[in-house]
Design brief:
328 residues; alpha/beta; 2 domains; five-stranded mixed beta sheet; two-stranded antiparallel ribbon
Length: 328
């Protein structure tokens, strides 16, 4: 009979995801975890069937173990107290959660601003100063962000789909200034373990997707209109919405530059990016400015750059924990 002391190795999804589950199961084993979490149960024929115990899942009360430091754990919980921020239960129990990865990596960078400045200067190929790093960025919130304020009673920075439990957000928003004190924005989607996502086509009249696409400087409306069908199905849908959101937030907050990046593991390319097909489909409908604003960046490359930048620095122990957990 299975129990919390003898969990299974979860094996579902694609090859990359199964590899992640095995790695994280071993990670918890090495950390000495002995009590494991269980998957959500289901209702079948009116009866509840309890979920199984898995070796990559934590009990919710042990959720602090999903974070590389106590301070990052507390900041992640605080983010959930402020407004909608995704699935709190998942970040406390699932070591494979991309959201937990996002909190660990970007709050680590937020706590080490010199490192963040160096990393984003390298990625942008220009010297910048990072002013704010906001995981689980929700448009319409943080209107009084120092240096990037806007009047939300007058300006709407959403794309029209926000609600209490829905809406287009970004995994991370990075606000920065350059050497000329010009403001810039990077919205980042951190796809650590997902396969393709998004199936909608933005058809609801109350959403602003299509009017914003008409006015976009990053999306080429003429190329889009020349296609035989809606291009924004499946994997392109989320990319489309986040590009629009980057433009919207950038304009509301007086930024001269807007970027949208996707961080993802190289080994997940065949599943997330369909071996490059999804990226090609997107770039075809981008303007020249849009091509420069959009980037796909491998998480392995990001970790390597950080590893080089912090050689000999005091924060190495925390970063080693990031590598131990997420370098699969």
């Amino acid at each position: 009979m299975e129990n919390l002391y003898s969990p299974k190795i979860y094996q579902s999804g694609n090859i990359w995801q199964n590899r992640v589950y095995r790695h994280l199961s071993e990670y918890l084993k090495e950390k000495g975890v002995r009590n494991f979490g269980r998957s959500k149960g289901i209702i079948r024929n009116g009866k509840r069937i309890e979920g199984s115990y898995y070796a990559h899942l934590l009990r919710e009360e042990d959720g602090y173990l999903n974070f590389i430091s106590t301070s990052i754990f507390r900041k992640a919980l605080k983010r959930f107290d402020e407004h909608k921020a995704g699935d709190k239960e998942r970040i406390l129990s699932n070591t494979a959660s991309s959201q937990a990865y996002c909190f660990n990596l970007f709050l680590f960078l937020d706590e080490n601003r010199k490192l963040a400045n160096q990393l984003f200067s390298t990625l942008l190929d220009q010297e910048v100063t990072v002013r704010h790093i906001i995981p689980e960025f929700t448009p319409g919130k943080n209107a009084n962000l120092p240096g990037f304020e806007f009047d939300k009673e007058i300006i709407d920075e959403t794309i029209g789909d926000q609600g209490p439990n829905r809406g287009t957000d970004a995994d991370v928003a990075v606000f920065y200034t350059d050497t000329h004190n010009q403001k810039g924005l990077i919205l980042i989607d951190n796809h650590a373990g997902q396969s393709e996502s998004g199936i909608r086509c933005g058809y609801k009249k109350k959403y602003k997707n299509w009017p914003l696409t008409q006015d976009s400087k990053l999306l080429d409306i003429k190329r889009i209109q020349s296609l035989t069908g809606c291009p924004f199905r499946f994997g392109l849908n989320q990319l489309w919405r986040n590009i629009l959101l980057a433009e919207r937030v950038s304009a509301a907050r007086g930024c001269s530059e807007a970027h949208f990046w996707v961080f993802s593991p190289q080994s997940n390319d065949p599943f997330l990016w369909k071996n490059g097909e999804t990226e090609i489909q997107l770039r075809v409908i981008l303007t020249e400015k849009g091509i420069n604003a959009f980037r796909k960046i491998y998480l392995e490359a990001v970790l390597e750059k950080i590893e080089i930048l912090i050689a000999g620095e005091s924060m190495q122990s925390e970063f080693r924990e990031i590598l131990r957990k997420y370098r699969v």
